[in-house]
């Protein structure tokens, strides 16, 4: 069996997308999972990625998630995650590749790290064409992030430093347990 990998999922947000891709590109053994909106946003923002394996949301049953059953992945990172994806994950809805990845990871006891976009009452975010905009997440968006943070095998982070630290802590834990 091949070495287990990190599954990185992208939803339809440009919020720190460039920085998320830079982190992912700096890691080894990463597969990219893209929702349909994730594919659109990568094209819209003109971002490139260096992942060897890319899975796109092209099947109704999210066929690529079967790899979780066979131990292909040790960790899931969903970054950036839109409020829509967060709400679906909180409600147990698995109707995109990304929400299916999260659900199957949970069912297979694979830890998930989620970088949620809407983490404060006011958020500066990059819009297409390098414009910065201020967004004001709704109360329900903020509440859903708090709920998701209580889920088993789920770490919710709110900035790039926390994302990087959570990934490094997870990789260090894996390294220690394999020694």
CA(first)-CA(last) distance: 18 Å
Oligomeric state of the chains present here? single chain
Mean pLDDT: 88
The second-level CATH architecture is 3-Layer(aba) Sandwich
| Major sheet size, sense and barrel closure | 6 strands, parallel
User: Count the strands?
Assistant: 8
The CATH class, by name, is: Alpha Beta
Query: How many domains would you count in the coordinates?
Result: 1
Spatial shape: globular
Task: State the CATH topology.
Answer: Rossmann fold
By secondary-structure content and strand pairing, the structural class works out as alpha/beta
Percent of sequence in beta strands: 15-25%
Tell me roughly what share of residues is in helical segments.
25-40%
Please give a structural write-up.
This protein is an alpha/beta fold. The protein has a single domain (5-178), classed as Flavin prenyltransferase-like (Rossmann fold, 3-Layer(aba) Sandwich). 38% of the residues lie in helices and 24% in strands. It contains 6 helices and 8 strands, in the order E-H-E-H-E-E-H-H-E-E-E-H-E-H. The strands form 2 sheets. A 6-stranded parallel sheet has the order 3-2-1-4-5-8, with helices on both faces. The chain has a two-stranded antiparallel sheet with strand order 6-7. Helix 3 (83-91) packs across helix 5 (139-148). The radius of gyration is 15 Å and the shape is globular. The mean pLDDT is 88.
């Amino acid at each position: 069996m091949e070495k287990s990998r990190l599954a990185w999922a992208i939803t339809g947000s440009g919020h720190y997308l460039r920085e998320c891709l830079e982190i992912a590109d700096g890691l080894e053994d990463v597969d990219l999972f893209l929702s349909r909106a994730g594919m659109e946003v990568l094209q819209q923002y003109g971002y490139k990625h260096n992942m060897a394996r890319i899975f796109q949301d092209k099947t109704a049953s999210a066929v690529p998630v079967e790899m979780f059953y066979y131990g292909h992945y040790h960790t899931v990172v969903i970054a950036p995650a839109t409020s829509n994806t967060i709400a679906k994950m909180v409600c147990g809805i698995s109707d995109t590749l990304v929400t299916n990845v999260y659900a199957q990871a949970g069912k297979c006891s694979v830890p998930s790290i989620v970088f949620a976009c809407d983490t404060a009452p006011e958020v500066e975010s990059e819009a297409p064409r390098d414009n910065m905009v201020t967004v004001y997440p709704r109360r329900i968006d903020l509440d859903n992030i708090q709920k998701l943070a209580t889920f088993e095998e789920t770490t919710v982070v709110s900035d790039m430093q926390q994302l990087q630290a959570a990934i490094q802590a997870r990789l260090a834990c894996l390294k220690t347990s394999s020694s």
